[in-house]
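Thread: Newbie trying to understand structure tokens

Hi all, I'm a second-year student working on a class project, and my supervisor (Dr. K.) asked me to get a predicted structure for one chain before our next meeting. I've only ever worked with sequences, so writing a 3D structure as a token string is new to me. If someone could post the tokens and maybe explain what I'm looking at, I'd be very grateful. Here's the chain:
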Amino acid sequence: MRSQNTQQQQKKSNIPPKTARAADGDAKVSQKRGEPSAAMIEDLNTLLADQWIMLMKSLNYHWNIEGIQFREIHKLLEDMYEEVFESIDQIAERVRALGGRPLGAIGAIPENARLKDATGTKRQANEMLQDLLNDLEALNRTLREGIKRCEDETEDYGTCDLMTDLLRGNEKQAWMLRASIQQ
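---
Reply by user tm_fold:
Sure, no problem. This is what the structure looks like when written as tokens:
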């Protein structure tokens, strides 16, 4: 009976079976080395939520940038949000490839993201760029931790490769932002 209720709860909550929780709240994870873990799927969904926040911030700042460097920063942010959008699809498809369900509801994004959305206040160009740079640096730290975890714990080289590609792209974006911030 309890097993049937757990299966019904999983269907209702759209949580992949590997991330199901026991009645006492402990995660049920049966994983062999080299197999994707529920924790890795959860990490990817958190990364997916963070990327949605990055997409919205970069779009918001792209639309609202003003000042003498408008054209250059407008284009820089356009390049950024296009890369972020592509990464969202890659992350979601990786979650599916691992047997999980990617976050797909708008309400799930802020609930699962580590990054915070931009406030509605008007910002100067340098403040916008610094905010995005801070988020990229936080994401890069998280990606490095995730790469180490997937190499050491799961040998999930497909996810490691995806995270490495994302890290490489983020590092380039961070460099571009740093170079664009006026001192």
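A couple of things are worth pointing out once you decode it. The chain is about 70% helix and 0% strand. The CA atoms of residues 127 and 177 lie 11 Å apart. Feel free to ask follow-ups in this thread.
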